[in-house]
Amino acid sequence: MPDLLRLVAVPVFAWIAVRDIKTRRVSSGVWIPLTILGFVALVWEGRLAWAAGDYAWRYAFLIPTAVSLGFVVPIAYLFWWFGGFGGADAKALLVLALLFPTFPQYTIGSWTLPLTTTPIGTFSFTILTNAVVVGLAIPLVIAVRNAAAGRITSVMVIGWPVSWEAIPETHGRLLETPEGRSRGGLDLDALRMYLRWRGLSLADVRDHPDRYRDPTTLPAEPNPPTDGAVTAAVRRDGGAALEANTPDTTDDTSSEDDDPWGAAAFLADIEGTAYGTTPAELREGLEVLAEKDTVWVSPGAPFLVPVFVGLAIALVYGDLLIGTLL
Predict the structure, then answer these.
(1) What mean pLDDT, rounded, does the chain reach?
(2) pTM value?
(3) Membrane-spanning regions, if any (predicted)?
């Protein structure tokens, strides 16, 4: 019964993965009911293992649970601390460590799933290793896709070309600078924050790059930048308010050369940082997007997708690494 109860989490993680693909945002509230579900299942299974005897309690429950909570949880926290995971990724692994500390067992006709197990029997660790394997396969898939289309470049393993018109609703990182292709560039969430702060669209920037490159056209009262999410409700004035706020001055200190695009002013005005974006990265990204019709973007595949796939594989097959080696 505890294993059946845990299956409730599977469609929830499927929904989380889809939402992460579309918005790169997952509400913190989704983890609370999953945590409660995990705690209930854990206590229920612990009582059943205790009643079954010392062997079941110690080897089938206590040791796998100790590894799950004492090893997987610290790993998730450390990866988040050092920036390897996003907050939602770390929370997902923390919840899975509580939800699936031991290997579940499901019987479908003559089949018993998962098909393989591991010696230590910690299911959350199996989910984690499966997710890592799936995550490592993503660059290979991207490279094959680009090679099949004849797009052989230095960044073909991490990105693909996107039309400028799709950029406002695309997640990831720009892989181009005015000097050429780059493996690290402007975060597109930061770009959306900047455009919303100025009350502009990317089409406005492309139509009048010289005008908006001049920092004297910055609004006196900028709009809320939001967090860069594609679904955020924003206020857009099309730049109409900017001309009225343009100072009448011939002082060289207010010239375009001091702060092209007002990039430094934007980053200084907002609370916090725009995903670590520097003024130079923002300027370079705007220069590229103001001129090019198609740009290379790294999708930055969200880790919650490999986590869900790793969970699904674990429930059916088991551990991809250990299962194929044994």
Answers:
(1) 86
(2) 0.78
(3) 26-44, 56-80, 92-111, 123-144, 303-325
